């Protein structure tokens, strides 16, 4: 099946909410993604097949030189086909074209090989404070 990738592609709240719940293994919520994306994102990448949204990544930014990967998601039915890697590649290309110098990502240990080996990120020192 053909997968199409689109920078700032049309998305509906319902489809991102479903994909997010599946990808992060939580209950379905009614988040207003279109509002969040319009206010905080440099852009996002969608991946679609003949049945709908199968991939998504959000690229937030500081409005200047730093972009940040958030919410990389691939539907269970479409995993292991290179969709995640292509989502990140498009996000990287578009962040560069927007004038960003840096693209950051934080990830859990089990995603280390995906981001570092498959997508070309390099390890850095970072810090984190859990707020809740």
State mean pLDDT (0 to 100 scale): 95
- DSSP strand content: 25-35%
Helix content: 25-40%
Element order: H for helix, E for strand: EHHEEEHEH
Outline the secondary-structure elements:
Elements (H helix, E strand, L loop, with lengths): L3 E4 L5 H12 L8 H8 E9 L2 E10 L4 E9 L8 H15 L4 E3 L7 H7 L14
Parallel strand pairs: 4-5
Antiparallel strand pairs: 1-2, 2-3, 3-4
Summarize the entry for a quick read.
The protein is α+β, with helices and mostly antiparallel strands and 132 residues long.
Q: How would you describe what is shown here?
A:
With 132 residues, the protein is of the alpha+beta class. The protein has one domain (4-118): Gcn5-related N-acetyltransferase (GNAT) (Aminopeptidase, 3-Layer(aba) Sandwich), CATH 3.40.630.30. The chain is built from four helices and five strands. The chain has helices spanning 13-24, 33-40, 83-97, 112-118, and strands at 4-7, 41-49, 52-61, 66-74, 102-104. It has a five-stranded mixed sheet with strand order 1-2-3-4-5. The longest helix has 15 residues, at 83-97. It starts with a strand and ends in a 14-residue tail after the last helix. The model has no long low-confidence stretch (mean pLDDT 95).
């Amino acid at each position: 099946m053909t997968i199409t990738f689109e920078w700032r592609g049309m998305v509906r709240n319902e489809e991102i909410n479903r994909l997010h719940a599946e990808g992060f293994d939580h209950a379905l919520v009614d988040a207003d993604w279109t509002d969040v994306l319009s206010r905080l994102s440099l852009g996002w990448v969608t991946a679609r097949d003949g049945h709908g949204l199968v991939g998504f990544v959000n690229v937030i930014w500081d409005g200047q030189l730093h972009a940040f990967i958030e919410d990389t998601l691939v539907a269970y039915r479409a995993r292991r086909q290179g969709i995640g890697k292509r989502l990140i590649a498009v996000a990287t290309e578009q962040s560069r074209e927007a004038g960003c110098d840096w693209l950051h990502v934080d990830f859990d240990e089990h995603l280390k090989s995906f981001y570092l080996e498959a997508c070309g990120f390099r390890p850095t020192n970072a810090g984190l404070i859990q707020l809740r």
